[in-house]
Amino acid sequence: MFLMFFLAWIIFNGNFTLEIALFGVLFSCLLMGFICRFMDYKLSYELFLFRKFKLIAQLLAVIVLEIAKANEQLIYWIFSNKYRMEPAIVKFKVDLKTDWGKAILANCITLTPGTITALLEGDELTVHCLDKDLGEGLADCAFVRVLRKLEEK
């Protein structure tokens, strides 16, 4: 979070000097103090993100790859006269332990073209797919595998 505040400060200033960097560090420290004091934020969250940075980067890479693959598949289906899409609603259970892991999975599925997470109740997700083939294997997709690693402490 501190790094995001600092980078936003630098970007919004438009150039980089020692003075701007020092004010950015001060500004970022003040903002971190504010959110820790008044918004129930803990520095342990920062440590968690720092320790899991490699897995978070891997999750982002998986998201980009899956979005690209789904876009390619949908473009093929749209321009193909032979293929008839069969929309489907798929329900499946996930073995993710944390609520944030399930929420991230639901958002990743929704970000992928051709699928929308319609409902998340407990361990069960309900996903609308433009084609039944898109719904196959969602319970153990690449998103779930990376999120399982992220949930491990």
Question: What does this protein structure show overall?
Answer:
With 153 residues, the chain is an alpha+beta fold. The protein folds into 2 domains: 2-47; 52-151, no CATH class. Helices cover 60% and strands 12% of the residues. It contains 6 helices and 3 strands. Strands 1-3-2 form a 3-stranded antiparallel beta sheet, with helices on one face. Helix 1 crosses helix 2 and helix 4 runs antiparallel to helix 6. The longest helix is centred in the middle third of the chain and has 27 residues, at 53-79.
In a few lines, what is going on in this structure?
With 153 residues, the protein is α+β, with helices and mostly antiparallel strands. It has six helices and three strands, in the order H-H-H-H-E-H-E-E-H.
Topology:
Elements: H1 2-13, H2 18-38, H3 43-51, H4 53-79, E1 88-93, H5 99-111, E2 115-121, E3 124-129, H6 142-151
Antiparallel strand pairs: 1-3, 2-3
Strand content: 5-15%
Low-confidence stretches: none
What order do the strands of the largest sheet run in, or round the barrel if closed?
1-3-2
- What is the total tally of β strands? 3
Question: What number is the mean pLDDT?
Answer: 88
The sequence of SSEs as H and E is HHHHEHEEH
Radius of gyration: 20 Å
Main beta sheet, described?
Answer: 3 strands, antiparallel
Structural class: alpha+beta
Distance between the termini: 20 Å
Share of helix among residues?
A: 55-70%
Figure out the total of helices.
Answer: 6
Q: Name the overall outline.
A: elongated
Tell me the domain tally. Answer: 2
